[in-house]
Write a structure and sequence with these properties.
Order of helices and strands: EEEHHHHHHHHHHHHHHHHH
Membrane topology: Multi-pass membrane protein
Structural class: mainly alpha
Strand content: under 5%
Strand order of the largest sheet: 1-2-3
CATH class of the largest domain: Mainly Alpha
Shape: globular
Protein name: MFS transporter
Distance between the termini: 11 Å
Largest sheet: 3 strands, antiparallel
InterPro entries: MFS, MFS_trans_sf
Oligomer: single chain
CATH topology of the largest domain: Growth Hormone, Chain: A
CATH architecture of the largest domain: Up-down Bundle
CATH superfamily of the largest domain: MFS general substrate transporter like domains
Number of strands: 3
Main location: membrane
Radius of gyration: 22 Å
Subcellular location: Cell membrane
Helix content: over 70%
Number of helices: 17
């Protein structure tokens, strides 16, 4: 949300008079409100990065059926995708801090009950799948609020740095969290790791409860359906948003199928599971480095630069298909992660600077839904396609398609020329 509207400066709780300007801060963590939010996200993301490792082993320990794991994962993923739009409407209608506190408390409850079931030996697939669905719903409600709240917490000039800090935290927890979960699973069992995740959500809710943000001003009698229509209007009226979302639907289709499903298959037949772990670590390291760079460096045409860097995301797919040595693939994964990370921060920052604050979460939820709906399609389609044309060939063609779509988005003038900070 723009921090300057017209000629009047706006503060977090309304207009600020010229006689009493708010104290400026040089970096996001200098603001107490952002510190509460940052602490909450750090704790929450640490728990989230642990939970799927924990659940995987806990479910396999309890049932010894891989089909159970698939059902639980699907039970989480489907509502996560379906309810994003309603999460966006809620975040623009109510206080975003209240939405985040409520969703984190809900996740703490669902994960806590799951942990109790697993630890006491009362495993029931139907109950665990239902809890996973509730947790997915909570995450769908919180996602749009997380994007919309950043401009409420920091001044406009600090939005990119705030996103870079949050990105660094997210990527660091992706590296540390699974390893920590593995230690807990090995030492105490998967149920205890799920319990730790529940505690993390509870602590995050306590931190987010320290935020003091007002509810947005809504028109009297405005319905949720009207809110959704207005959000759709704001989405489709901005070419750089709907073109970016549509293009990323194609990229996610390719990425989910080739890297997420075909990658481990190719790795098992060539470099092995341990080397594939190194490749994934290279990707995570690239994401982390991109966050550090984007905290220090900015660009006038931020979105266009981010779009150019996104082309690097195709590199590991092509290298995977070409069967290059492991060190080369790790290096390619690092560059791909770095390029995608730069794009992610550039896109989020552009969103928060150029979408009106009162519609920001709704537009973000539509964007997320549209770009993620192709993920399960890519996961399902890649196996029969690879069986028909060959694993390596599909990986190379998928990487080329990724690069062409990412580069082609630069032909769209609003993407290429959108200016940072305006």
């Amino acid at each position: 949300m723009p921090r300057f509207l017209g000629r009047e400066r706006t503060g977090r709780l309304g207009p600020v008079s010229a006689e009493s300007p708010p104290a400026a801060v040089a970096h996001p963590l200098g603001d107490p409100q952002f510190r509460w939010f940052f602490a909450g996200r750090l704790v929450s993301m640490t728990g989230s990065s642990m939970v799927w490792v924990a659940l995987t082993f806990a479910i396999l320990e309890a049932s010894d059926r891989t089909s159970d794991l698939s059902i639980v994962v699907a039970s989480y993923t489907v509502p996560l995708a379906l309810f994003q739009i309603f999460g966006g409407a809620a975040a623009d209608r109510f206080s975003r801090s209240a939405v985040l506190v409520g969703s984190h408390l809900g996740s703490a409850v669902t994960q806590g009950i799951s942990a109790v079931l697993l630890l006491t030996g009362h495993y029931q697939l139907v109950v665990l799948a239902g809890l996973a669905a509730l947790n997915g719903t909570m995450q769908a409600l919180s996602g749009p609020a997380l994007i919309g709240i950043v401009p409420d917490l920091v001044d406009r000039g600090l939005i990119q740095r705030a996103n870079a800090l949050l990105g660094a935290t997210r990527n660091a927890t992706r590296i540390v969290g699974p390893a920590l979960a593995g230690l807990i699973v090995a030492g105490a069992g998967g149920g205890w790791a799920v319990a730790v995740d529940a505690v993390c959500y509870l602590l995050a809710a306590a931190c987010l409860g320290g935020l003091r943000l007002p509810a947005p001003v809504r028109a009297a009698g405005a319905s949720m359906l009207r809110d959704l229509r207005e959000g759709w209007g704001a989405f489709r009226s901005r070419t750089w948003v709907w073109v970016g979302s549509s293009s990323f639907a194609v990229i996610n289709f390719v990425q989910a199928g080739v890297w997420g499903v075909l990658g481990p298959v190719l790795a098992e037949d060539t470099i092995g599971a341990a080397a594939w772990g190194l490749v994934l670590s290279g990707t995570a390291a690239g994401f982390l480095v991109s966050s550090v760079i984007m905290y220090r460096v900015t660009f006038t045409r931020l979105l266009g630069v981010g779009q150019a860097f996104l082309v690097l995301g195709a590199l590991p797919l092509v290298l995977l298909g070409l069967g290059v040595p492991t060190p080369v693939l790790v290096a390619g994964a690092f560059l791909g992660g770095a390029g995608t990370g730069v794009y992610g921060i550039a896109y989020e920052t552009s969103f928060q600077e150029h979408i009106p604050g009162e519609a920001l979460s709704r537009v973000a939820s539509i964007d997320t839904t549209a770009s993620l709906v192709t993920v399960p399609l890519g996961q399902l389609a890649v196996i029969p396609v690879a069986a028909a044309f060959g694993d390596s060939q599909v990986a190379v063609v998928g990487g080329v398609a990724f690069a062409l779509v990412a580069a082609g988005m630069l032909a769209v003038r609003p993407i290429r020329t959108l200016r940072h900070g305006e």
